[in-house]
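Notes from the 1:1 (GR / supervisor)

We went over the backlog. Supervisor wanted to see one worked example end to end before approving the batch request, so GR pasted a single chain during the call. The sequence is below; no edits were made to it. Supervisor asked that the structure be written out right there so they could see what the output format looks like.
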Amino acid sequence: MRYGLVVLAAGFTAFLSFSLLAVAIGTDYWYIIDVNKPNCSGPDDMSSHSGLWRINEGANMSSVIPSFTANMSSLSETERHLLGLHKVVVIMLPLSLVLLVFGWIFGLVSSLACSPNLLAGSASYFLFCSICTLSGVCIYIKYSNLAMEEFQRMVSPENLAHVNVSFGWSLATAWLSYSLEVATGLLLLLAARITQMKGRFDSGVAIAIFFLKHFQITGNHSPCEAKKVRIVQRFLKKENPACSETKNQNNERKEAKQ
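Structure output shown during the call:
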């Protein structure tokens, strides 16, 4: 597998994961509440969709979620717990977004340097970013479920019969971003492995060429050593046919001159 293609694929998935996470953070379709109550439309529509920062109710009403500005002393223990979970979410996901920017830069430098250690470090960094994204998404799901349980305790079962709740496409976008972050880390690990194998192969070729030149200079060697020379020659012909062709052409020219 070619190193360049793997690195380009890793760069593309990293950029795409950043873009999707930015879209997820900036949109308000994480959690959707659809109220299908009869004779309830227009200004009286109670349906809503919410994001990380605000809740949009009805047609034109929106309110900011007061995670950091709420008066905690006037809230119940459950409400304080919910706001605490929401604070963690709105910190973890933007932090993951910022980390992805530095990860993309680090990955670019390590890919240009073709260093297995730097590539492995970049891969580990992206996998760490994916853990941050996964943690934020999982905490948001827990936060939404607890909020829904609290809502069910406050509303009568008759009214709940007309309420449908679901997670929106913003959450799906965040999940996709997480998957691409993991894919980026795995691709960078593959690039590090390719670079490492290429370095070992180049070292093996250099040793084989040195071995061959040494026995060509000395000239006198035992049958066992001659067998080793033939093995090295076959290895070099197999791995570098262009060089072997050039060598054969040079030998033919020498024989023609003689």
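Supervisor's comment: Confidence is low (pLDDT under 50) at residues 239-247.
Batch request approved.
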